[in-house]
Write a structure and sequence with these properties.
By secondary structure, this protein is mainly α. The protein has helices at residues 3-14, 18-40, 62-82, 92-104, 144-149, 154-169, 172-185, 189-195, 197-205, 217-233, 240-252, 258-262, 267-288; strands at 121-125, 132-135, 139-143. It has a domain at 60-178 and 209-288. It has a 3-stranded mixed sheet with strand order 1-3-2, with helices on both faces.
Length: 292
């Protein structure tokens, strides 16, 4: 069942205004799909160089992991709604996030053709946590803490969203799960693959872990650069990628921040972004140019 339809049904049962949120989210998805159709035929070659995705990820079927992510995301939304922490689509901050997503989604399929079929969702949860993520299949969540405590501009918010989208597009979670599965299953991996079996169980059981999955430094670098390009193509200022991580570095001192536990900051990260800003600057200028 479509996770959006499932959430609509559960919200209606709870009587918490889910129908209104569903209507707004459906409009958001239609608008994003229309934008994707417009951009599909004219995507230019990538300006940043991140190489090919690891073939190891193919050990785990994409559908298996995406289904696990869907279930975990839905559970998270239900829990947040029950705690009255899930902000409605009418909230200005939610509308702001939806507006940013609409500008980025049309350029995602160039990085992963599966993204054309993803049912993108963007939700905002009221929490002091400084955190945001995108699960496999395009399920995005932001916490109010990251927007408010870092006082993010739209450009900086787009950099975070693009970065998290990039993790999903480059299938970093799928690769992490594959490596974990290969280690635990070992020589039985081939047999498990024939009918999914053990492998399917491992992927499904990792649903909750997808929220706190730690990526490698290489994964983080890829997500930084792909996110930078997505944001530039969406007409967001590339320099915001640098200012974002400067803010992260400043707020990191003396604080245990959830986002930085899985996305460590540092001078090397900032230098790499600075080196790549010129590569996408023209994309930004073209996207930001007013139509004639």
């Amino acid at each position: 069942m479509c996770i959006l339809c499932d959430f609509k049904s559960s919200a209606a049962v709870r009587g918490d205004g889910g129908s209104h949120r569903w209507s707004a989210r459906r409009g958001f998805l239609k608008a994003a799909a229309a934008g994707a159709a417009t951009a599909a035929g004219g995507a230019a070659l990538a300006q940043v160089d991140v190489g090919k995705s690891s073939s190891l990820r193919k050990l785990v079927p994409a559908e298996t992991l995406e289904n696990a992510a869907n279930q975990q995301y839905l559970q998270m939304l239900q829990e947040a709604s029950g705690q009255k922490a899930l902000l409605p689509a009418s909230d200005p901050q939610v509308q702001r996030l939806h507006g940013i997503a609409r500008r980025l989604i049309p350029f995602t399929a160039a990085w992963n053709d599966r993204a054309r079929q993803w049912k993108w969702q963007v939700n905002l949860i009221r929490s002091e946590q400084i955190n945001a993520f995108c699960m496999p299949g395009g399920k995005i969540a932001f916490y109010t803490g990251i927007l408010d405590q870092l006082r993010l501009t739209d450009d900086e918010t787009a950099m975070i969203m693009g970065h998290e989208m990039a993790h999903a597009l480059r299938e970093h979670a799928r690769e992490r799960v594959a490596k974990s599965t290969a280690t635990s299953v070992g020589l039985r991996l081939g047999a498990a693959l024939l009918g999914l079996g053990e492998l399917g169980d491992v992927a499904a059981n990792l649903g909750a872990q997808l929220l706190t999955l730690k990526f490698s430094r290489e994964d983080e670098s890829e997500a930084d650069l792909v996110g930078l390009e997505l944001a530039a193509r969406g007409a967001f200022q590339p320099r915001a990628g640098v200012s974002l991580w400067q803010k992260m570095a400043a707020v990191q001192q003396g604080k245990g921040i959830e986002f930085l536990s899985t996305h460590p900051s540092g001078p090397a990260r900032i230098r790499e972004l600075e080196a790549n800003v010129p590569k996408v600057q023209r994309l930004y200028e073209q996207a930001a140019r007013p139509p004639r």
